[in-house]
């Protein structure tokens, strides 16, 4: 798909090398080139160790790249530091896999969401308090959540609170790094639906990172497939089955199909067992009626 707009984020030949003991090195990222366009959701999929989380940490400046460029709105932000970096982090937010690791256990949820609003001088006082309640409602949490501590929330509720904090500063880009993988399937689906809704409403660009191809395909416009630190293929989500050419992408697709087939088989067996149970119950009821008569 051709894009008429300029990319909001561009990674040019991004490399990240880790130095290990014994003068050994590991190339976590190898000349990665990717573009993210305004309003787009770019999925990044790959197995553990493929480099996808390293990529997210480099984009958000939690890690320094070894070489290459990170360009935001056509400006090189690769080596930002100090106040400039702090301001840049407002524009590129990140939602991690484990929300519990982000919270201060002694800070209530309301204060947690309000904190960046105050720190970035977006609003203050009563206005910030009202904004917290609005954000909670937007992610499907009640107003009473503001007075709760992190340990009083479920994993899904914690992730919703983290998302509320991230969208509160009105960033241009949000990175979701395995943001639903620690949740059970039903809660995961609710969070994915929330992300789709928020994207439609706000127009925020996003990068959704996961090892699960089916999940990535559900929320993304395009999918970048990473393998051993490289982007081996970028395909349109809607054309994945017909356009994917790389053997690794094909293997991911095959594993997704096998998992789906297994789920369908388990579901069919469950339904069959329930039907048999109902039939047995009906027989018991008929027998009881005949005996009582």
UniProtKB/TrEMBL annotation:
Protein's name in the database: ABC transporter domain-containing protein
Region called Disordered, residue ranges: 267-293
Domain ABC transporter: from-to ranges: 9-253
BP-aspect Gene Ontology terms: transmembrane transport
Taxonomic source organism: Paenibacillus amylolyticus
Pfam families associated with the record: ABC_tran (PF00005)
Keyword Protein biosynthesis: no
Family matches, as PROSITE patterns: ABC_TRANSPORTER_1, ABC_TRANSPORTER_2
Entry annotated with the keyword Nucleotide-binding: yes
InterPro entries assigned to the protein according to its UniProt record, in alphabetical order: AAA+_ATPase, ABC_transp_ATP-bind, ABC_transporter-like_ATP-bd, ABC_transporter-like_CS, P-loop_NTPase
Keywords of this entry: ATP-binding, Nucleotide-binding, Transport
CDD domains the record matches: ABC_NikE_OppD_transporters
GO molecular-function term, one example from the UniProt record: ATP hydrolysis activity
